[in-house]
Design goal:
Blueprint (H helix, E strand, L loop, with lengths): L2 H20 L18 H10 L2 H8 L2 E3 L13 H21 L2 H4 L2 E6 L2 E7 H25 L18
Parallel strand pairs: 1-2
Antiparallel strand pairs: 2-3
Helix pairs in contact: 1-4, 1-6, 2-4, 2-6, 3-4, 3-6
Length: about 160
């Protein structure tokens, strides 16, 4: 199988679980944190919703320099807007990935903050890293939800809340 169809299949599979998790974020808990060092739930959920956008960023640039382009959170504060933002970034990512070719995926991409280089990888590796970040932060969101006694959906199988998936 070629790389692009595999990436498209994976982003859609992960989107199904991500959508279920994001839909559970209560509107009245966007500023809630499980610990003083933790990110607020709304910031975490927004970050997860924005992660498909990394596919497009990666395909259309050769680097991301946080010194030149500081991250600006979108300020989402309700689940309806959160899900809409996720669907928008997901649709754009899938469209951009569908229009690219495998030679583009082999090109080098750099993440930096001014002179400090965080990573230099192929574009396909950066896309896979974004997928992994989605799974990682989605699990983190699952802990937040669990601490609020919100039943969790299954990701790759049943959860303690959903034994008969």
């Amino acid at each position: 199988m070629e790389i692009i169809p595999m990436l498209l299949e994976e982003i859609e599979q992960e989107a199904q679980t991500t959508r279920k998790m994001l839909a559970l974020v209560p509107d009245d808990k966007y500023s809630w944190k499980p610990h003083e060092k933790s990110m607020a739930m709304g910031n975490l959920a927004t970050h997860i919703a924005e992660l498909p956008g990394w596919v497009s960023i990666t395909l259309h640039t050769s680097e991301l320099d946080f010194a030149a382009q500081p991250y600006k959170p979108s300020g989402i504060n309700n689940t309806k807007d959160l899900l809409a933002d996720f669907e928008k970034t997901l649709a754009t990512a899938k469209a951009d990935l569908s229009k690219t070719d495998e030679t583009e995926l082999k090109k080098t991409w750099i993440m930096r903050n001014g002179e400090t280089i965080y990573t230099t990888r192929s574009k396909v590796d950066v896309i896979r890293m974004a997928y992994s970040q989605t799974v990682h932060h989605r699990a983190q969101l699952g802990v937040y939800l669990r601490l609020l006694n919100i039943p969790l959906p299954g990701s790759y199988g049943p959860t303690a809340d959903n034994q008969h998936m």
